[in-house]
Design brief:
- This protein is 64% helix and 0% strand.
- It has 14 helices and no strands.
- Helix 4 runs parallel beside helix 10.
- One of its GO terms (cellular component) is membrane.
- This is Fatty acid hydroxylase domain-containing protein 2.
- One of its GO terms (biological process) is lipid biosynthetic process.
Length: 341
């Protein structure tokens, strides 16, 4: 067992070898185009979804004028004079609900192994079937601790910092197009800060004391997205997400939407299932499997620094795409037969 743990530490803290050196500009440009496609597609989806949702809500409730502005005005007046409470309400309640509602559905599958319609999309087919209940309880306790005692106080600090720089709870909503522009900027900032802070925690001097806790799950599940040491949760989980709205002086509505999207995205990245019509989790799942590959979110900086070379030689890389059919990618792109079979 001690030898096994030691090997795990060495794998997790290892830096990429000479085979992981960056490739030519063509490879990097390909990765940039893929990231731009992901961000652009997400923005177009949000735009279309937002317009459609607004139209249906206005039709259903018979609302006139700007539905979202009217809704925000009512909420703003309800909290009038209590901006701090409004900010905390928006940035904690809705993101927390997003995280736990999505993970409640995933945990139902993780703990029961049903329905089989979902489990057939498991990436590491021989793992978490079902998940270890003792290990899961420990992870949930850590996640709750991080949310209450780390995320909560950080959101308070963010509020006072944003209030010092501007007015995050202003009476006027930002335009929808400006909000989408901000979301794209947030995603770019998250990629940069998460990549470098994540690699920092893989340094031999830090990995064993901090980041190894997160890597106890070599086959991750959704809830372990924020299963981490408190220091790592501050620097690598929270900071890359909260810094964008602070820098841009964003409105509470945009900040809340971004926090929800970030938590949903990291849940999908850790969920362990490559489900139809959802972003591919193959990239980050491979990081948990191999430790020293795929440190970023979109893969642009991994391509730049050559930290995805081994990943791009695997079947997981071939499966790293949007699944647009009901056939699991482990069936349409099966693993290569093992030697001797």
């Amino acid at each position: 067992m001690m030898v096994e743990t030691k090997n795990s530490d060495m794998k997790g803290a290892a830096t990429t070898d000479s085979s992981s050196r960056q490739e030519g500009p063509g490879g990097l440009w390909d990765s940039v185009k893929k990231a731009a496609f992901v961000i652009g597609s997400g923005i177009l989806f949000l735009a279309a979804f937002g317009n459609s949702l607004t139209w249906h809500l206005q039709r259903f409730w018979g609302a006139s004028g700007d539905f979202w502005q009217n809704l925000w005005t009512k909420l703003y007046l309800a909290f009038e004079g209590h901006d701090a409470a409004l900010f905390f309400f928006g940035t904690m309640l809705f993101p927390t609900l997003t995280f736990w509602v999505s993970n409640a559905l995933l945990l139902l599958v993780d703990t029961t192994g049903k329905p089989s319609f979902i489990t057939r999309y498991r990436i590491q087919v021989d793992k978490n079937n079902p998940v270890d209940p003792v290990k899961l309880r420990h992870a949930v306790k850590t996640v709750l601790f991080n949310q209450v005692f780390i995320s909560g106080p950080m959101v308070v600090v963010v509020y006072y910092l944003m209030s010092w720089l501007g007015n995050p709870c202003g009476p006027e909503l930002p335009t929808f197009h400006w909000a989408l522009t901000e979301l794209a900027a947030f995603a770019i900032l998250e990629e940069i800060l998460f990549y470098y802070s994540h690699r920092l925690f893989h340094h031999p001097g830090l990995y064993k004391h901090f980041h190894k806790q997160h890597h106890e799950w070599t086959a991750p599940i959704g809830v372990v997205a924020i299963y981490a040491h408190p220091l790592e949760h501050v620097i690598s989980n929270m900071l890359p997400v909260v810094i964008g709205p602070v820098i841009l002086g964003s409105h509470l509505s945009t900040t809340t939407l971004w926090y929800c999207l970030a938590l949903f995205s990291t849940t999908i990245s850790h969920c362990g299932y490559h489900l139809p019509f959802l972003p591919s989790p193959e990239f980050h799942d491979f990081h948990h499997l191999r430790f020293n590959q795929c440190f970023g979110v979109f893969g642009v900086l991994d391509r730049l620094h050559g930290t995805d070379t081994k990943f791009r030689q695997t079947k997981q890389y071939e499966r790293h795409t949007l699944l647009t059919s009901l056939t699991p990618l482990t069936e349409s792109i099966p693993d290569s037969p093992k030697k001797g079979q």
